[in-house]
Amino acid sequence: MKKTLSILLALVLALSIGAFASAEDERITISVMGIDWGYGPSSNSSMEQWWEDLFDVNLDIQWVNYNDYNEKANALITAGAQPDVIQINKTDGAYYYPLFTKAIDNGQFLDLSDYLFGEGGLAETNAVFKGWSQGMWDQATYKGGIYILPRSKAEIAQQSGITVRRDLMKKYGFEEEPATMEELKDWLIDLSNAATEGEGYKIYALDFYGDIINNARTTAFAVAFTGQMDWGYDAEGNFEYICFDENYINFLNWMKDLYDAGVLDPEFALSNSDTSKWKGGRSVAFLTAWYNWNQSADLVTNRIFDKVCPDTYECWCLMPVTGDNGIVISANSSDIDSCIAISANVDEAKLQKILQVFCATEEEYPGYNDVMSYGVEGLHFDFDENGTRVKNDDQRKANTEGYVGAWNQIFLKVDADQITSKFMRAGASRASDENIQRAKDIRAVLAAYLDETGLSFSNQNLFSETYNTSWANIVSDTNANITKYIMGEISAEEWLAFVDSVVKGADYQAIIAEFAAAAN
Fold first, then answer.
1. pLDDT in tens, 282-307
2. pTM of the entire structure?
3. Kindly report the CA angle at 102 between 331 and 336, in degrees rounded to 5?
4. Domain 161-330+457-519 falls in which CATH fold?
C-alpha cells in the first residue's frame, strides 16, 4: 500500500508526458500570483517542478507575502497587468470587492459561466464541482457571470459552536444542557457563579471582548433572536441590517442580563483578550467554530487549553439552542474558502490548459489529494516501518521551499470535512467516540437549518457606493450605543430612537436602495 501511491503517480506522470510528447520549451507557460502566508516558498521548487511535469506546463508563479498581497494585486489589476491566473483575496469580507469588480466591468477578467454550465461543462463533469449546490455558485456570481473559481467549499456555518468547560459542568452539577436562549443565559450565569466560588478566582460566563458587531463571539447568539445574518430582509422585503431589526434589542437585553449579573468582563468592550480567555480557563463558555473543540480522547495529545492549564480541563460543545426566531447559528459570509480569477488576456488554448491544471481532481490524477496535502514520497517525506510519514532535514527544507500543503489555495481541493480531519485522526490524537458523535449531531442540526431556511447574507456580491463610503461611520456609532445600552448608560427608548434616526437617515436609505438596484 505504501508504494501504490508512488506507482500510480509515476504512471500518471508517464502517461501525461507521453500523451503530450512535448519538449519543455514547447510547454504552455501560465503566469500565476498567489498568497504566501509566511512560509517563504521559493521559485522553481521541487514541488513546483513536480506539478509542472504532471500537467506538462510551465508555471511562472510568484508567491507574494500576505502583508503585501492586496497592495500588489490591486496595483497590477488597476494597471491591467494582472497575470494569467491570480488569487483573489477577500477585502472587507468579500471576494467581489469594488476595485476587482471595476476591473471585471472593464473586461479584464473572463466570465467562466459557459465553461462551467455549458454542455458537458465542468459543473457537471468535474468530481468536485458537481457536488456543489446552486447556492455555492451563486456566491461566485457577479452580475450574472462567474469570474472567480472557488478552490473548495468550506465547512458549513463555521462560527456556530457553543464550546464549554465540561469539567466544570460535571464538578458543579450542570450536566443538564440548556435548550433555549433563556435557559442558556441562566445556565451561564449560575455555572459562572458556582465555578467562581468553587475555584477561588473569577470565571466569566463568556470569553468575549471588543465590539459586538461582526464579532464571531456573539453573532450566532444574535441570529437566534433575529433570524437573519448581518444583512437580511424586513417584513416588507427591504434590505435590513441585523442591528436595526426590531428583535435585535432582545439579544441586547440577553447580553445586558449577563452584564448585570456580573458574569461578563466589566471592560468587555475593550480588546482585553486575556481577561476572560476560555482556553486559559477563565470562562465557562465561548462562541467559536463548532469543530474547534476536537480534544483528543486522552485530553493531552491534542491540547485545547493553554499549556499552563491542568490536563483535567475538558471541553464540550452544546447543541445549538433555540431563540425567538431561530437557533444559535452563523452562516458563513462565503462558503468559498479561496478562489482564483483568470485574465481575459489569455487565448483559448491557454484557457483550456489553465482549466486542466487548476481544476484537477483525484479522479483524473490518482494520488492527487495526498500530494496536495503531503507532497511527493521521496521528495518531501518517506514512510517508516510503521507506515508513518517522516521527514529528514532535506525533506523539511523541500517542504518549506515547495509550499507543500498550501497549493490548495490556488489548485482545486476536496471540500472541507472538519469532523474527519479534526476529530477522527488516527492514533492518540483521535477524539473520543462520544465527542465524534456530538460533532456529527451538531453538524446535522446546522445543515438541516441552513437547508430549511436558506440563511445567508442577503447583500452578498451586491455593490453600494454609499455603503463603501459611509458604512464605517454608521457601524462605529452603532457599536458605541450598543456598548452603552448593555452597560445601562442609555435606556431602551434611547436605543430605539438611535435606530430610528439611522434607519430614516439618507445614508442608510441610499444603501438599501443601492443594494436593491444591484440585486435587480
1. 999 999 999 999 999 999 989 899 99
2. 0.84
3. 25
4. D-Maltodextrin-Binding Protein; domain 2 (3.40.190)
